[in-house]
Amino acid sequence: MKRLTNWLSPAKEMSTEWNSATKNAKNIEGFCIEKKKLKIIQDFMFTGVNVAFTGHPGTGKTELAKKLATVHGLPYVLINVGTIRTPADWWGFMEFKEGEGTFFHKTRLTRALESDQPHVIIFNELNRCPSHCHNPIYDILDGNRSIYIEAIDKQLNVHPETIFLATLNRGSSHTGTFQEDSAIEDRFEFVHLQLPSETEMTDLLLNLYPINKKDASVISRLTLQLTNLYEEEKLSKVFGMRPAFNAAKLLVRNNHLTDALMYTFANRYSRDGGIESEYTHVLQLIQGLAASGDSLD
After folding, report:
1. CB–CB of 220/212 below 8 Å?
2. Exposure letters 74-101 (e unless 16+ CB within 10 A, then b)
3. How many whole angstroms separate alpha carbon 172 and alpha carbon 15?
């Protein structure tokens, strides 16, 4: 029988050199995140802990994962988990080509696991495949960090410096998602991402787009107010920073602020119900904020 310490210890130790030599980034260019939260994420990453990002749509979960790979000079593999419909889909499929015959086409995940170079592997929207489809990746996400792939008759060992990140959208509004089981939850630490403050969001928009501060402030205020209404269950959905960026792009092309906000924010909501619809409610909010923007400092 194994001793308790053997059960609790990871099967393979992380490289001591990697653990001590990798320094945390103090900030992520073009991304607003609390400094303590950023430190914790990186401390997890470089001590062999898998990290999953949760939060409302548009809070930058996927973008943060990609930026973390880039800032540390690591290639990343972004896997659209929504395309996984059978357990075998993780590794590849048999393909026939005229003149070449039938061969096994490896996925990017398989190729990354075969590589002698460390990667950041991002499971994007990890809960968009049925829970039984997660079974094949359990062993690469725990202390084993190894997998035998029947189709290529090969045992693949995860590079000791490879990092696993994931994103998840949770909640009843995400109808294409599945409830993740405890086996997945046990293999990740979950970090919730939130929108930046109004001031931070305004500064971010100003850094990214040549628009004026008044308009950037209105966009930021609207984004946060719609998020608050969603959390109060007064709106059925929320979109985070995506419409904010798109509104700024319309302003760069000399569109009026009200039009920019209507086409990027209000049009995402249902018009069912006429004057009582979510669209009308959001449009009224836009008109009020755009008018008040004339007097912003």
Report:
1. no
2. bebbbbebeebeeeebbbbeeeeeeeee
3. 41
Measured at the CA of 185, the angle between CA 182 and CA 190, to 5 degrees, comes to 155
Query: Which backbone phi and psi does 147 adopt, to 5 degrees?
Result: -150, 135
Q: What is the pLDDT of residues 179-205, one digit of tens each?
A: 677 888 899 999 999 999 999 999 999
Query: Does position 295 have pLDDT exceeding 90, yes or no?
Result: no
Q: How far apart are the first and last CA of the chain?
A: 70
What mean pLDDT, rounded, does the chain reach? 88
With contact defined as beta carbons under 8 Å apart, do 167 and 122 qualify?
yes
Confidence of residue 286 (pLDDT cuts 50, 70, 90): very high
- Nearest-CA neighbor of 278 among 247, 251, 238? 238
Rounded Cα distance between 142 and 25, Å, is 26
Q: What is the 8-class DSSP label of residue 25?
A: P
Q: DSSP character for 22?
A: P
3-state secondary structure of 161: coil
Query: Which tokens is 40 given?
Result: 């914790």
Residue 263 to residue 283: CA distance in whole angstroms: 10
Question: Across the beta sheet with 189-192, what order do the strands follow?
Answer: 76-80, 120-124, 163-167, 51-54, 189-192
